[in-house]
């Protein structure tokens, strides 16, 4: 990730609120799975580390990024921002059947 990309992501992260809180139990497999699901849905996740969590937020961010295959955008105080690019699936476009050109056959008026 380049510094310009990181700066752009930091700017985007300032506008979002934390959607997950990391508390007393710290990193559990369930919490890691919740972060993974949130990243799959949103690309960027902001996590609030509560004061009763005794571990260092920077270490938690590094561990979470390794487990979820994401990147740490920033750690400010007790807030962690993670980013994982969503792979866009290519939509398969079905070929529409070709239409035959319209041939004008005489007058469209009916003789009444």
What does this structure look like?
The protein has 112 residues and is of the alpha+beta class. The protein has a single domain, classed as Translation Initiation Factor IF3, CATH 3.30.110. Helices cover 34% and strands 18% of the residues. The protein contains 3 helices and 4 strands, in the order αβαβαββ. The chain has helices spanning 3-14, 29-42, 57-68; strands at 20-22, 44-49, 71-76, 79-83. It has a 4-stranded mixed β-sheet, sandwiched between helices. Strand 3 and strand 4 (79-83) form a beta hairpin. The longest helix is centred in the N-terminal third of the chain and has 14 residues, at 29-42. The radius of gyration is 26 Å and the shape is elongated. It starts with a helix and ends in a 29-residue tail after the last strand. The model has no long low-confidence stretch (mean pLDDT 85). Residues 1-95 form the CRM domain. Keywords: RNA-binding. This is RNA-binding protein. GO terms for molecular function: RNA binding. Residues 90-100 have a biased composition (Basic and acidic residues).
